[in-house]
C-alpha cells in the first residue's frame, strides 16, 4: 500500500471508524440503471429530491473533476441493548444526540488531518446529506456487500453502521469489493411485515415503515401497519444473521438515553411539544416534527386495538 493510502487508513481508525476503503471515482453505469428503474416505478414515494438530483447521484465529477478517489468509512452505532418496549424507535435514534453532527465533526477532523499530509490535498466529505450514493461507494471500496434488504453489511460488524464518504484529489491504492454473502438466505424479505422488500435487493419506499415514520409528513396509508414503530424500522436488520455479532460501539453518543429508550406508548404520547423540542433538539427525531411524531404514536395505538 502506498504511504498516503496507509496514512489515511490510520487517521480514519484514530477517529473511531471501524472500516475504511478506497475506490476510483467513476460514473455509475450499472447502478444508474437500477436507480432509474426505481424512480420510474415511483419506488421513491414522495422523496422527489432523489429524482431532482439523479444526474449528480450517478456522476461524482459534479463535485469537482479533481476528485479522483472516494474514501468510504463506516461508523458503528450498534450497542448491546435490545428493543424492550412494544413502542419501537430505531436503535440509531435511541440517543438524543444527532448522528449527523457527531459523524460530520469526525469526518471534518479526518479531512483536516489528511490535508495536513500534503499542501496539495483537497477533500470534501458527506454523510447522508448530499446527492451521493453512499452505499454504492461503500460497496465498491470493500466496506461490505449490499444485502437483500438493500443495506451494506460487513461480515464482522454486521450492518448497524453509518456510511460516510470523502472525495479526494489524489490517486490511492484502491480496495476490491467483497463477496456478497447473502447466499440463499431471504430472512429480511420474509420478515418485512409490509412487503416493502418486494424482491431481492429491491425496496418500495411506499410500503416501508422507515419511510413513513421518518420521511412522510402526510397521511400514512391504511395498508402500512407500523407494527409498533414510532420512528424508523430495524426489522430487516434485526433478523439478519450477520447482526448476531457481539461487536459494539464504545461511543456513548449512541447509547440509549433514558428519556427515549424503552418507554411505553402512553409515556411517549404524554411528551408535550415543549418537552419534545427540548429532548429531541439535537436528535434526528426533531426533523420529523411534533405533529408527525404524535401521528405515528396515535396510529400505532389504533392499530394495536
Ligand atoms: C433514501 C434513503 C432511504 C429511504 C429508501 C431506502 C433505500 N433502500 O434506498 C428510506 C427512507 C426508506 C430509508 C430507510 C432507511 N435508511 Co436510509 N438512506 C437513504 C439515502 C438518503 C439514499 C439511498 C438511495 O440512494 N436509495 C436509492 C435506491 C435505488 O437505492 P437502493 O435501494 O440501495 O438500490 C440499489 C439496490 O436495489 C441495487 N440493486 C438493484 N437490483 C439489484 C440486483 C442485484 C443482484 C444486486 C446485487 C443489487 C441490486 O441497485 C440499486 C442502486 O444501487 C441514503 C444516504 C445516501 N445519500 O446514500 C440513506 C441510507 C441508505 N440509509 C441508511 C439507514 C441507516 C436507513 C435505515 C436503517 C434507518 C432506520 N433504522 O429506519 C432504514 C433502512 C431501510 C432499508 N431496508 O433500506 C444508511 C444505511 C447504512 C448501511 N449500513 O447501509 C444510509 C446509507 C445513510 C448513511 N449514510 O449511513 N433510507
Ligand atoms: S425498514 Fe422495515 S418496513 Fe422497511 S424494508 Fe425493512 S423491515 Fe420492511
Ligand atoms: S437477512 Fe439474509 S438475505 Fe437479508 S441481508 Fe441478511 S444475509 Fe442477506
Detailed description of the structure:
By secondary structure, the chain is an alpha+beta fold. The protein folds into two domains: 3-81 and 95-168, no CATH class; 187-304, no CATH class. It contains 13 helices and ten strands. The strands form four sheets. It has a four-stranded antiparallel sheet with strand order 1-2-7-4, sandwiched between helices. It has a two-stranded parallel sheet with strand order 3-10. The N and C termini lie far apart (60 Å). The mean pLDDT is 96. The structure holds cobalamin and iron/sulfur cluster (2 copies). Cobalamin binds next to helix 2, helix 6, strand 7, strand 9 and helix 8.
Kindly summarize this structure in a few lines.
The protein is 35% helix and 13% strand. The protein has 305 residues and is of the alpha+beta class. The chain has a 4-stranded antiparallel beta sheet, sandwiched between helices.
Mean pLDDT across residues: 96
Q: Provide the list of bound ligands, each named once.
A: cobalamin, iron/sulfur cluster
Question: Can you list the strand order of the major beta sheet?
Answer: 1-2-7-4
Strand content: 5-15%
How many discrete domains?
2
Biggest β-sheet, characterized? 4 strands, antiparallel
Distance between the termini: 60 Å
**What percent of residues adopt helix (DSSP H or I)?**
25-40%
The total beta strand count reads: 10
Individual helix count:
13
Oligomer classification: single chain
- Classification by helices and strands: alpha+beta
Shape: globular
- The stretches of 5 or more residues where confidence is low (pLDDT under 50) are none
What string, H for helix and E for strand, traces the elements in order? HEHHHEEHEHEEEHEEHEHHHHH
Q: Kindly provide the radius of gyration, computed on alpha-carbon positions and rounded to a whole number of angstroms.
A: 20 Å
Amino acid at each position: 500500500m502506498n504511504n498516503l493510502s496507509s496514512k489515511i487508513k490510520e487517521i480514519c481508525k484514530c477517529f473511531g471508524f471501524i472500516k475504511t476503503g478506497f475506490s476510483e471515482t467513476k460514473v455509475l453505469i450499472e447502478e444508474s440503471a437500477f436507480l432509474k428503474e426505481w424512480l420510474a416505478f415511483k419506488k421513491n414515494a414522495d422523496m422527489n429530491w432523489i429524482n431532482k438530483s439523479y444526474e449528480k447521484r450517478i456522476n461524482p465529477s459534479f463535485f469537482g473533476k479533481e476528485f479522483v478517489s472516494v474514501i468510504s468509512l463506516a461508523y458503528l452505532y450498534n450497542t448491546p441493548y435490545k428493543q424492550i418496549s412494544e413502542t419501537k424507535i430505531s436503535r440509531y435514534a435511541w440517543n438524543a444526540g444527532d448522528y449527523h453532527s457527531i459523524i460530520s465533526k469526525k469526518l471534518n477532523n479526518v479531512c483536516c488531518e489528511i490535508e495536513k499530509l500534503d499542501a496539495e490535498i483537497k477533500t470534501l466529505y458527506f454523510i447522508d446529506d448530499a446527492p451521493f450514493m453512499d452505499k454504492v461507494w461503500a460497496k465498491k471500496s470493500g466496506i461490505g456487500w449490499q444485502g437483500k434488504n438493500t443495506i451494506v453489511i460487513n461480515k464482522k460488524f454486521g450492518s448497524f453502521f453509518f456510511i460516510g464518504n470523502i472525495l479526494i484529489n489524489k490517486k490511492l491504492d484502491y480496495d476490491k469489493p467483497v463477496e456478497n454473502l447473502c447466499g440463499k438466505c431471504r430472512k429480511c424479505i420474509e420478515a418485512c411485515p409490509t412487503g416493502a422488500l418486494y424482491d431481492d435487493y429491491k425496496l418500495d419506499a411506499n410500503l416501508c415503515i422507515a419511510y413513513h415514520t421518518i420521511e412522510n409528513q402526510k397521511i400514512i396509508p391504511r395498508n402500512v401497519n407500523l407494527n409498533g414503530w414510532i420512528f424508523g424500522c430495524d426489522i430487516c436488520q434485526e433478523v439478519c444473521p450477520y447482526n448476531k455479532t457481539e461487536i459494539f460501539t464504545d461511543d456513548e453518543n449512541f447509547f440509549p438515553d433514558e428519556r427515549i429508550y424503552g418507554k411505553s406508548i402512553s409515556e411517549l404520547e404524554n411528551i408535550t411539544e415543549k418537552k419534545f423540542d427540548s429532548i429531541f433538539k439535537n436528535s434526528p427525531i426533531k426533523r420529523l416534527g411534533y405533529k408527525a411524531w404524535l401521528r405515528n404514536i396515535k396510529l400505532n395505538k389504533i392499530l394495536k386495538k
